[in-house]
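S.,

Sequence below, as promised.
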Amino acid sequence: MIFASFARALGQLDDPRFRNVLFLGVGLSITLLIAVYVVFLGLVSWALGDSTTLPLIGEVRWLDNVAGWGGLIVMLIASVFLMVPVASAITSLFLDRVAQAVEDRHYPDLPMARTVGTIEGLRDSASFLGVLIGVNLLALIAYLLLPFAALAIFWAVNGFLLGREYFQLVAARRIGPDAARELRKRHWLKIWGAGVLMAMPLSVPLINLLIPVLGAATFTHLFHALPSGRGQTVQTGRYHST
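The prediction came back faster than expected:
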């Protein structure tokens, strides 16, 4: 079921809506990182001014340039680690478009899905980004204690997080957030396994940027493949067959 869902998601990568979401997420992520650097550079210039007096050295006029270039180097290094989680969080704002593209092609008989509001989408994306970064920072301890198992830990941790986020996103469109959580708990092992499959390419540059789109598409197929997934609608916070 998991590999079949993933294969069907791969088969739709040529869909223009997939590419639009991918380019939108990556473009906005790059814009955000540049904006952070520009703000940092402005604050440095404001704090240091044209010249600065240092003990034992006297007045210098180059400290702001050193800080600016140093900030650029730090940003470039940080972007290597932050690009994927930031792109994933931003792209998640538009993943309902990916899920809709999948359903339009493979499940055309379904009624209109529930629309996720802008505020709800921003809240969920911010929450996902925070949990993703926080849990991975905590996982660094496990990597140091068990370096021989670091890759497996990375796959397991991020697989759990990705599976939880993407399944919740696609299921909530059809059955609402409460019923989606209930369904996720019933099928947690399958969802975790599919999440691990998504986490494996995260360490591969450029390929990892495809994961949010592939993840949303894969979990859309997985949701509809589950016995209690296809043909469900929202009613009083519970899922039931239509």
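The longest strand covers residues 232-235.

Coffee later?
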